[in-house]
Amino acid sequence: MHSYHYVHRVDEDRFSFIAADTTLVPGLRRPFNFFGYVTEDGVETLKTFADESKSSNGTVWFGHYPTSIIVSSPGIRSVMSSGLAYMCGHLHTLGGMLDRMYTFHKSGNLELELADWKDNRRYRVAAVDHGLFSFTDVEFGQWPIILVTNPKDARYKMPYHEPLARMNSSTHIRILSFSAAKILSVKVQVDDGQWSEAVHSSGPLYVLEWQPEKLVTGVHTINVNAEDADGRLGSVSQKFSLDGLPLQEFSLFGRMLLMTNICLLLQSVFGTILALTVLPLLLLRWCSLQPRHRCSWSPFSMLKRIVWKVHLVAKVDSLFYPLLISALYVPVGPFFVGDGVAGNITVFFIWGMFLKGTLLPGDVTYTYGCGHLLLFHIPLTLCIAHMAELRYRSEALTLGRTICLLIPVSIVFLWKVWWCVTFYIAYGYLTLLIGPFTTWSLVFGAALWWRSSQLTPSDFYRVQYVAVSRVPTEEEFAANGDITTKL
Question: What is the DSSP letter of 26?
């Protein structure tokens, strides 16, 4: 399916519906298909549709991906800015965390996420009434359905895209009511006034005369009850305003998810984590610190002890350079090679994926880059640093101390093994054979861990502060002789 433009005509009125196809071409298996993508040619096509729709009475955009996770240049939001709304899915309810995700963009139009059909059985009923866009999200089997189109719900008013003044000059309240059975009655109440019976006009439309001039100031409430022939009752209560007073009740978290450029955010987070991984090693490489043999349990004291341990790693060439190069490899080299699409070899980088001669942009790959640094590289560095300190102090490895060393290292490696399994399931055995990010990381980590356990006094020659009465021999070091004096 490609992007297309459909024009619906009602008498002399024209309404445009533009489908934005932002799926990856060629497509990938999960998890690296989470973001949408529009090529420059695709953006030009959408711009053409947007220009064509300017002669319509209203334009509604729809697509699968929210604009926050669509990679495009220039931004797709600017292309859609002349429309009434962009309706999308993909995030749906974010695993049940957000029942409804709606927001206004800077251009004043709406972006409306819809809960999924598979698990939540939800769909949307929308209408354009004299240029005013209204909608309601409904669960399957919920009858009767009620949609008040005039006056418009104050939460969704778009003053730059809708002729809101038409509500003030309207003569009737207008309501759409649907049901699997015949609608018997539709009753309306404004604020605390009396309930009045709306009159059936045609199809699902019910109307009731009103006097909007009496409601021109402040925020008011309209209540609607409907009953069908099967005895089912439906009710709606919504606020409206005729003086332009805004009323936004959208979830802050939902608005942030829909308005943020998530791909750019992930890139920034990854860059920050990479800097926090590399810079301390580089700084400690050129610093001279005093050893910390005794410390309290205060957070600051513990932090100083950790810094001292990492300082030892930074001074040992056989540990410093592998850790530094492996961290800098993440934003440069391939993660692994795998079967991205059936029968097609794909090379995965953090900044993109090569498939069928096409470079697809990196997006969710930055999440995995962050996870690799936070959950494997940094914990492995801390484990190695702790072992390096033990070798520096030449402390005996008792059973309890050995267990305390092996538990965190085992957790780090087991997590990486689980990651290898998930990539194997998604992209095949090649991810294990050609996998700097998968099995190769395990081998690399195990080799560094073994190397840290074999350190000798000569490896610490860069540690400038060594408070000793004399330098022990290799035999004394191997026999667990303490090379530092107690401070």
Answer: S
Task: Say how far apart CA 41 and CA 73 lie, in whole Å.
Answer: 10
Q: What pLDDT score was predicted for residue 414?
A: 96
Amino acid at the residue 2: H
> In angstroms, how far is the first alpha carbon of the chain from the final one?
73
Peptide bond into 31 cis (omega under 30): yes
Nearest 5°: the CA angle 133, 136, 142 is: 150
- The CA distance from 139 to 142, in Å, is 6
Element (H, E) at 19: strand 13-20
Non-local (6+) Cβ contacts of 208 within 8 A are 172, 173, 175, 188, 196, 197, 198, 199
- Using DSSP bridges, classify how beta strands 13-20 and 58-63 pair: parallel, antiparallel or unpaired: parallel
Burial class (CB in 10 A: 0-12, 13-18, 19+), 242: buried
Helix axes 365-372, 262-285, angle to 10 degrees: 30
Q: Tell me, what's the pLDDT at 487?
A: 31
83 CB burial (10 A radius; 0-12, 13-18, 19+): buried
User: What are 256-310's pLDDT values in tens digits?
Assistant: 999 999 999 999 999 999 999 999 999 999 887 766 555 566 787 788 888 989 9
Nearest by Cα to 147 from 166, 110, 168, 173: 173
Q: What one-character DSSP code corresponds to residue 69?
A: G
Residues in the chain, pLDDT under 70: 1, 73-74, 246, 290-297, 395-397, 464-487
